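Researcher: Last one for today. Full complex below.
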Amino acid sequence: MTFYKKCTDSDSILNKRNNRRLKFATDFDKSIVINSFKIRDWKQVLPNEEWNIYWSNTLNCRTLFNHENGYRFQDRQLINHFPNHYELVRKDLLVKNIYRYQKNLEKAGHPLAEKIQETLPSAHKVTRYLYLDFIPTTYVLPSNYKRFVDEYHRFPQSTWIIKPCGKSQGEGIFLINKLSKLKKWSRESKKCIQNNLPSKDMYIISRYIDNPLLIGGKKFDLRIYVLVTSFRPLKAYMFRNGFCRFCSIKYNSSVSELDNMYIHITNVSVQKHGEEYNSQHGGKLSLKNLKLFLEGTRGQHVTTRLFENINWILVHSLKAVAPIMSNDRHCFECYGYDIIIDDNLKPWLIEVNASPSMTATTMNDEILKCNLFDNILSVVLPPSGIPDARWNKTPDANALRDFEILIDEDSILNEDLILNEDLKVKRNT
Ligand SMILES: Nc1ncnc2c1ncn2[C@@H]1O[C@H](COP(=O)(O)OP(=O)(O)OP(=O)(O)O)[C@@H](O)[C@H]1O
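Model: Here's the assembly. Have a good evening.
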């Protein structure tokens, strides 16, 4: 793909003066994307023509930012990814970046990195971060195979989930509770030189959350959309209308059911092939209804605390990657967070997606995603409605619509102050 023509500033000003239409390009033939622009009277053009917003796939975005390409962004152009978004969304890198964030805070003696010792029901003693323990213990295979084996022997009763780093939609995922199932990695770990493998040959193995919160006896996870308009300073917004995705078969943690993905994997792409899948509601429940259900069954205080803890995870996963993100001012990105809540109402970060699906499986889904897309445009466009990378990215309260501010570091100046504010929030919850 070539990206030669640019939309110059003077062009755009001319467009406005002559009442010519703003232009968008997209790699997706999705009505949700295309209609949201057309409703705003934007004109669709090809990616290699002049555009003001390019809703690209991740590969074309990276190509555009590749210096060899020679493409120069103009002020009136925006694009929907950060060039190295993979630091947050590739499974192995997300884990690596969060572990590094924890270690750095610990080395600095920061109170956020406080640790506690716990005795598990199995009588094992474990030390964990008090505030930063929000991803299941994870190892990269094959490079961390030996470290995984040590952990496996410490907790031989645990179940583990293995996921290919280069795949999505539940593809290639399986659960194990026996080391013998990992012979392939045992062999490869001996040959492997760390980090030399392409991501398609890498896997992560994570402790399986085997005590998920169940509703109607079924496991579910949360899909929460987070829009980031800047990493330094960090400016992020959470979409209020996230949803839960349910498994179609009742949860059962017995070993004989470990292979049954309709019990364990909540992805719609997996569940829709099951006999029990309900295409009316698509196995989905809105976050608002989840909140109401939990307030009714568990009480308001613990529900509020759960949702504060979810916000905490969103903010700190972003802080973990913020220092290494290419913070290009032409970029914004909407991430799809996958969170699982366990039966102690502790939320766990499972994964972050860079290109959350813009395909709708039900009517409600269609409404939600159209609304999401339109709200994204509302937040990333300045009050003039014309893309402007020089804008201070501080939307009016009205422009936020169904987004709420997760964090805006512009409003707090000093880094220590920000972290201390975090701690104050955490201690209060
Ligand atoms: N550690 C875990 N404990 C319990 N369940 C898990 C765990 N990790 C993943 N799952 C389940 O497996 C599903 C798929 O995992 P994940 O989202 O990481 O994979 P994916 O194939 O990349 O999916 P996506 O299409 O969302 O990117 C999750 O939505 C969740 O239901």
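The pocket of adenosine-5'-triphosphate is lined by residues 136, 161, 163, 167-171, 173, 206, 208-209, 221, 265-267, 338, 340, 350-351, 353 (CB under 6 Å). The first strand starts at residue 23 and ends at 26.
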